[in-house]
Write a structure and sequence with these properties.
Elements: H1 2-12, H2 20-54, H3 67-92, H4 96-121, H5 136-168, H6 178-203
Length: about 210
């Protein structure tokens, strides 16, 4: 019996197994490497936009994009970063209800952003799209940039909902809530990407017509 107990204790204190703190450090490093790898995709799209921008026949073409909806969507996404940061601070101080409300508000604002950019800018919710960018180089860049970013926002909203329901189950404590931290970091990353995308899509170039 004592031999079994000794074997069990040895397994619990196996020095080969990482501690919780070491595991979190490794997870943080993995998260940063993941975001770094994702950055190459976004940088490639920005590079394509800059390359087309250099061509006077292509790069300066920016069909009549509506500025106000995009600006409102951008503000909405930036405000969502405040709420996800508030959610992280709330769970760190044990304020579970405030954590849940903040996470849900972040997911709501992220969904509103998607509706604004994908729904209206792509013309999905309009009987007659107000922009004509489906053809040409700018259209390819526009849908590539907004589409890839929208995919990341959708992923972020799903992660937010997963974190919310896990929080309701009591899986997070003030001392152990790395999943919330990782989700918040990813959401901030998505927001920062859009801060770079927005001017390259909506502000750079001259609104002229295709010939």
């Amino acid at each position: 019996m004592s031999a079994v107990s000794h074997s069990h204790d040895h397994h619990l204190h196996n020095p080969q197994e990482p501690t919780r703190a070491e595991q979190i450090r490794m997870n943080r490093a993995g998260m940063w490497f993941f975001m770094l790898s994702e950055s190459f995709l976004f940088i490639a799209l920005l590079a394509a936009r800059l390359y087309l921008w250099r061509d006077p026949e292509i790069g300066l073409i920016r069909p009549g994009l509506e500025q106000l909806p995009a600006l409102v969507a951008t503000v909405v996404l930036l405000v969502s970063s405040y709420f996800v940061n508030r959610a992280e601070i709330s769970i760190a101080h044990g304020r579970v209800k405030d954590f849940g409300r903040s996470i849900l508000m972040t997911a709501f604002l992220g969904t509103a952003f998607l509706i604004g950019v994908v729904g209206f800018e792509w013309g999905l919710f309009l009987p007659e799209p107000h922009i004509r960018i489906s053809d040409g180089a700018f259209g390819a860049v526009f849908f590539g940039m907004t589409g890839l970013h929208a995919l990341h926002v959708i992923t972020g909203v799903i992660l937010l909902l997963v974190v919310y329901f896990n929080g309701k189950r009591g899986l997070y404590t003030p001392d152990d809530h790395y999943a919330v931290e990782a989700c918040a970091l990813y959401w901030h990353y998505v927001d920062i990407v859009w801060v770079f995308f927005y001017p390259f899509i909506y502000l750079i170039g001259t609104a002229v017509h295709y010939h």
